[in-house]
Amino acid sequence: MEYTEVLRRLSINDEHFAEHFVTGAEPVKLDQKTLALVRLAALVAVGGAVPSYGAEAAAAVNAGATVAEIVEVLLGVLSIIGLPGAVAAAAALVIALGHNVNAVLDQPVDGKPRLVPEQA
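Below the sequence we write its predicted structure tokens.
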């Protein structure tokens, strides 16, 4: 199907057409790695739930993406979602990638210890 027809059907809110892609009955023509990274970027943009990050990060890794590429997705959308969105997404990605958020946050930044509230 031509891209113009795809855009037309989406523009007219053709639910039957869209359903084929939502259910997977009609495959998207991107390779699995690219699709997984795009879905992760969309999840970041909408501020998805932490469990969703786990599922999408796992799908990306299973499709051949590296952890570095997953983090690059976050950097790639930073100018669109802004720093607050990136902060929230970064914490969710830390968990999704199997790390302890507190341990990561307690690490020094540029060789300087983090200020804890009592020291601030």
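DSSP finds six helices and no strands in the chain.
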